[in-house]
């Protein structure tokens, strides 16, 4: 047997023992899961539909974000083992969750691909496989428990606005439920924590709810907007 395969199986067995101690699976399950990770967009869509009984919501937005991370329609493997933080990832418990539109679709997709994704949302997650924390992004310091320079990508969907004359540069759908101080705190917290949490060269990808994106790259400890 090739040395690479031996090393791969040893890693899977070791990870399996760790999962066993937490009652979450076996080494065989881990090995099969790694082998069966979707490698193409079509495989990913099929996996999501089979697992959640529905197709991906906001398909174009998700695919646009994955492409900006470096993935291709026919090869998603470049994202495996990348560390991603999704701010405002969504939850099935969201009070505005129309037809599953606010489900944590991006986190689900990244987890299926094999990325190490963490979701942050004001609502808790229910029976999701990815790691998540219930946090209010308008509370200063709420993400301080996460280590400095620990993520390759930070994603923020539907919270930031691209219209410069919009109050505090936050998406206008927040205006019905938040006051000015809350929105100001949220904007400041998002940019402050993103700069701290991104690794040098990492990307901050923000969307205002459609397939348009704002992209910043961390260079010399600053977030530089990319054209």
Q: What does this entry show, briefly?
A:
Helix content is 34%, strand content 19%. With 227 residues, it is of the alpha/beta class.
Provide an overview of this structure.
By secondary structure, the chain is α/β, with parallel strands linked by helices. The protein folds into 2 domains: 1-36; 38-226, 3-Layer(aba) Sandwich (Rossmann fold). It has helices spanning 3-21, 27-35, 41-52, 59-68, 105-113, 180-197, and strands at 83-87, 116-121, 131-134, 151-157, 198-207, 213-219, 222-226. A 7-stranded mixed beta sheet has the order 3-2-1-4-5-6-7, sandwiched between helices. α1 crosses α2 and α3 (41-52) packs across α5. It is globular and about 40 Å long. Residues 1-32 and 163-170 have low confidence and may be disordered.
Give short descriptive properties of this protein.
seven-stranded mixed β-sheet, Rossmann fold, 19% strand, single chain, alpha/beta, 227 residues, 7 strands
Indicate the CATH architecture of the largest domain: 3-Layer(aba) Sandwich
Q: What is the beta-strand fraction?
A: 15-25%
Helical percentage = 25-40%
Shape: globular
Query: How widely separated are the two ends?
Result: 48 Å
What's the number of extended β-strand segments?
Answer: 7
Q: Outline the low-pLDDT stretches.
A: 1-32, 163-170
Number of domains: 2
Placed side by side, the strands forming the largest sheet appear as 3-2-1-4-5-6-7
Enumerate how many helices there are, as a single number. 6
CATH topology of the largest domain: Rossmann fold
- Alpha-carbon Rg, integer: 18 Å
């Amino acid at each position: 047997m090739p040395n690479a395969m031996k090393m791969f199986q040893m890693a899977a067995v070791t990870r399996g023992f760790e999962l066993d101690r937490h009652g979450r699976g076996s080494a065989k399950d881990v090995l099969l899961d790694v082998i069966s990770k979707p490698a193409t967009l079509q495989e990913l869509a099929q996996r999501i539909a089979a697992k959640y009984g529905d197709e991906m919501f906001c398909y174009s937005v998700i695919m646009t974000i994955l492409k900006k991370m470096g993935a291709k329609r026919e090869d998603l493997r470049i994202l495996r083992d990348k560390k991603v933080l999704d701010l405002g990832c969504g939850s099935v418990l969201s009070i505005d969750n129309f037809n599953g539109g606010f489900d944590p679709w991006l986190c689900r997709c990244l987890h299926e691909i094999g990325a190490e994704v963490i979701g942050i949302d004001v609502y808790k997650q229910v029976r999701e496989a990815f790691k998540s924390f219930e946090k209010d992004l308008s509370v200063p310091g709420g993400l301080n428990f996460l280590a400095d320079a620990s993520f390759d990508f930070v994603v923020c969907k539907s919270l930031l606005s691209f219209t410069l004359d919009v109050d505090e540069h936050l998406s206008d759908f927040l205006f019905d439920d938040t006051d000015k101080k809350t929105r100001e705190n949220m904007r400041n917290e998002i940019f402050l924590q993103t700069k701290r949490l991104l690794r040098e060269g990492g990307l901050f990808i923000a969307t205002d709810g459609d397939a348009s994106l704002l992209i910043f790259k961390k260079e010399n400890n600053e977030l530089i907007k990319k054209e």
